[in-house]
């Protein structure tokens, strides 16, 4: 049978034109294929019924690149005119400049000119195990369809140069990790997913919707009923006292100084004070060395700092922010003292992350002036500021702190008073779920890699909560001792839904304290990326023996999707409780807080926006099934159950009606 050679185009009812290269066996780019592609792209660009384009190859192979037979003919005949002059016209003018979104559906292989065509598309969807590479150098030529430029842009200069110079191909799985491939799907889903991608780009992509949501959600945080709508005016905050010059205190002081606010930094002795002042200086120097601040501005900011060992400078401060260690008695004593020495209107704020503000202010008569100013570490860099109000905090005090937050370039989110407040409370199941998975037999490095693929910057075993409280985010960067210290406070508050894992204690016992001593789940060496430490697996085994939760003593088998669900659905579940208890004013506040406080990917719109796109019913049913198999940790909350059964979104305000 004659080989069917050519390029076809089919336009579906969805307005997607599928352009298919057919030149068996590898769909090489012979002259007639290149002219066929040119013609079809021109046609698709002109036709008004075509909204988007998908480019693919026939017979399970995208394309093996330019037709090498042409080179052979040129060598034989010396006729250079046999080489088609196409790269600029086809790849740049017609494909890359096309106003219609173009998605490559890659299967089998995309080599040489084949990969270059795919890279000229706006996105690439691939089936597993596809071979991707630019092997031109093995033929004594360089990639001629723009691959030398596009590959390094997509995978980074080092990797790109490596692939070109060594003619090294990679799999689509590796391509997905490097950013060359946008989505990996089973072969049967390749065309459907590529069409969806093309239409998403053509219409409003999910990413754009999510980012626009985050934009407006961030603006909505500045509207607080009965605070910002009752005609109050914020009072000027010119001089602020910070008590405690540790990591948090010095970071908070730096943030204030950078916005020209005079800061009095108080410590208990001159050694600690000097340390605190040096930390502020180092923070400022860091900004200068990274080009974020001029030396002049850094010097001006530093000149506004005054270190003190007593309260004499407190008589004219507008606000005090206490940032000492999490010790109830100490905080109560400090609040009693500052109530006496500060002016009667001075705001008395605490940077606590675990202790109830009502308890902190118990011994004072100034409960209306007491408020939480919960910064995230490093406080001079992280933009989230949780403003924690009690039932007694006055509207004026909340407004003042919101205005101060904005002045120091933070995004203030007003939240209610509970253990962990909004962010740490919502995310406390995050690392617990990861620990449960590992105790159930799942590889911990896989868990980290799945979570980073989802879009969080680090996996749960590397991660540190950027809050001064390291909650139960027992990642290497935190230093594992800290996590254990606060575990009890959470267990007391939310013990009925906690998973207790001995893994962290065992890790510490084995001499690993995370990044602090260069060894945790990963090995940390100066100047190189953390490396998974396989010797930690014996510690993991010990933990598994103790928890003994693997069904039938065998590791469970889970897909990557299930790993994401088992880690993030319990977080969504806790977010539902936070909403139900009115800890946040609106669901979108938690989206902003999760993006800015926990680096939840903004392109997913924040935690609850993402959960609503997944669907409350699906999340409820998954959690219900998981709780039947693995116990109460996964038990769906009342709020989630109600939303799922009524067909309501999690983010819908309580009063609104069901959409069904
Ligand atoms: C402008 C650009 O930058 C320039 C370019 O694109 S230059 C071309 C770059 N591409 C390449 O170097 C790929 C070369 N091909 C290969 O490495 C391998 O053939 C392959 C990995 C694609 C497939 O391997 P495999 O499945 O083992 O099949 P293999 O027997 O090698 O090839 C099958 C047939 O396809 C042909 N073929 C493969 N690639 C071809 C190509 N690019 N052009 C013309 N024919 C090609 C082979 O000659 C062979 O033909 P035959 O059946 O008549 O003998």
From TrEMBL:
Residues 420-524 form the 3-hydroxyacyl-CoA dehydrogenase C-terminal domain. It comes from the Eukaryota. Belongs to the enoyl-CoA hydratase/isomerase family. It catalyses: a 4-saturated-(3S)-3-hydroxyacyl-CoA = a (3E)-enoyl-CoA + H2O; a (3S)-3-hydroxyacyl-CoA = a (2E)-enoyl-CoA + H2O; a (3E)-enoyl-CoA = a 4-saturated (2E)-enoyl-CoA; (3S)-3-hydroxybutanoyl-CoA = (3R)-3-hydroxybutanoyl-CoA. InterPro entries: 3-OHacyl-CoA_DH_CS, 3-OHacyl-CoA_DH_NAD-bd, 3HC_DH_C, 6-PGluconate_DH-like_C_sf, ClpP/crotonase-like_dom_sf, Enoyl-CoA_hyd/isom_CS, Enoyl-CoA_hydra/iso, NAD(P)-bd_dom_sf. This is 3-hydroxyacyl-CoA dehydrogenase. Pfam families: 3HCDH (PF00725), 3HCDH_N (PF02737), ECH_1 (PF00378). CDD domains: crotonase-like (cd06558). Keywords: Fatty acid metabolism, Isomerase, Lipid metabolism, Lyase, Multifunctional enzyme, NAD, Oxidoreductase, Peroxisome. PANTHER family: 3-HYDROXYACYL-COA DEHYROGENASE (PTHR23309), PEROXISOMAL FATTY ACID BETA-OXIDATION MULTIFUNCTIONAL PROTEIN AIM1 (PTHR23309:SF53). It is found in: Peroxisome. Pathway: Lipid metabolism; fatty acid beta-oxidation. Residues 239-417 form the 3-hydroxyacyl-CoA dehydrogenase NAD binding domain.
